[in-house]
Every structure is written in C-alpha cells, then in structure tokens.
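6-phosphogluconate dehydrogenase NADP-binding domain-containing protein: structure tokens wanted.
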Amino acid sequence: MSSPLRIGYIGLGAMGVPISINLTKYIKANNLPSMTVWNRSPAKYDLLKPHAPETQFAESVEEVVEKSDMVFSMLIDDKAAEDVFTKAFNHLGKKERKGVVFVDQSSLKAITSGKLAQQASSVGATYLSCPVFGRPPMAEASKLLIVFSGPEEVKEKVKGILIPAVGDRVVDVGEDVKKATALKSMGNMVLLGWIQLLSESYALGDGIGIDPEVFNGFLQQFIPAPPLLAYSNLISKGIFKSGSGFSIDGGLKDARNMLSLGEDLGHPVDLPTIQLAMKNMERSKELGGKDQDWSALAAAVRESNGLEPFREGTNGGKGN
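Answer:
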C-alpha cells in the first residue's frame, strides 16, 4: 500500500495565498497529510493560519522538499524561481531522493522553465510548468484557467488536484514546458495590449467630454468578457489600489518577458504595442509607485494627452 501524497507549497504572494488555502481544503477533504509551506517573508503565514491551522510552516525551501512528494510554487520572477529551485534540486541531489514532482505556477521566461525542467530531471525529479490566468478573486473561487505542460504520465496525476482545487479549466500544450510559459506571456500580451487600448480610449473620451461611466457601461454590453472588463472598471473609475490584482512591477517584469520571448526561442518579433505599454507603466510607476495595479498605465496615457494623470477625487489613484 502506497503512502498518502504529501503536498508542499512555496510562495505566498497575492495569488499564492488563495491557491494554497484551496489546496489545504483539498488536502483535508481527501484525508492527506497536512501541507508544508515556505515563504521568503514569514509574516505571510498569518494569512494562511486562520484557514488551515494544521499547516506546517517550514524554515527553508529544503524542508518543504524533504517533507513533500509534490511541491506547488508561485514565485515573483525568474531570479526568485532560480534561487528556490537551485536549493530544492541541490537538496534532492545530496539526498539521492527520486520522484518529487514540482508544479510551478510562476510566470517565467520560457527559457527559464526549460532550464528548470532539465535541472529537475538531472536529480530524478519532474518539473511541470502550470501558469494560471485570473485575478485573486478567481483564485479564491478556484476558477483559474490553467496552462499545463510536462510529461504526460505525471500530468495525469497532477490534473486531479489542479481541478477542482486550483482552477476549473485546463489548456494542455504538450510535454515541452517552454510552451506553457510562452503561452502565458502571449496571453498576458493580450491583456496588456487591451489595457493600453482602453487607456487611450478613455483619454480620448475624457478629452471630448464622454462620461467614463457611460463608456464603461457601453463596453459591458459591447464586449461581454469579464476578464477584460475588470480593467475597464478600474480605468473608468481611475482607482488602481495596490493588492487588488497585478502590480506595476509585475507588469513590467512580464512585459520584458514578452519582448524577449521571440528572440529567446529563435525568432525575434517586433511588439510595438507592448513597448509603448511598458513605457507607460514605467512613467506611471514614477507617478504613483510600484504597487499600483498595472492598469495604472492609464495615468501616463492621460498625462501624455494633456490631462491630469489621476482623475479628480481619486486620491492619486489610491481611492479613499
């Protein structure tokens, strides 16, 4: 009789917290051992404890790996991911322990995912790239869209946990993990391009006297796509609270990944819309700080068109 699956989690950011909470619910429902969690800042543990007091909070990455058969992760960028996985793989190499599965939900460069998969294989582990689409409320509701890649036989084992614990839809792009992170960048390109276009449209409307609430109401009926319309709601109100979604710094990181993706995989492609959006995010960061939602790039578009960067009464885009 095989031992019950032990699940670990690394990275308690805006998305990692709700995902890890939902994994603890899955663990409890299936009578599995309590989850082992590590985060660079232990202060984040307080967000998880009320929901899963039985969770074990590790003092190191190595401890999570030692106590887990499957490790989920959501890390801020490539540097953080390489640091965490180097520690994890070095630990497995020293212990000569085989068969650990890493389910990485981070938004990384495709070439980074490919490198991590090779390093995992060299120590007898498996690395799956499983980035997700959706804002924190969708993560809380286990309604994320999951992009899935890695060895088929391992994916089958993981899929039954991802759905229903993490999301409700999967796009399987095959065994090459680089394709999942590439698709994540391409999906984020659509979102960032949409935010840029929205920002220009709202700036035009403000310039010629179209009420932003009227325009937003029109879009709600014209384009019934909630993931896109969430950004119209933010830009129409001019409020870009930190922690409500994806930050400016996160957006800048992803924009750099988008711009380098073609060259990284052997076919450079010019992306003028993304270049412009990145320039506007850089300016909006100067105006309102790094923790704003990335849709705050609208402030830079307003400024470049002779309008005040932030709408009147919005407390500099922060709200009340």
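The chain is about 55% helix and 10% strand. The first strand starts at residue 7 and ends at 10.

Cheers.
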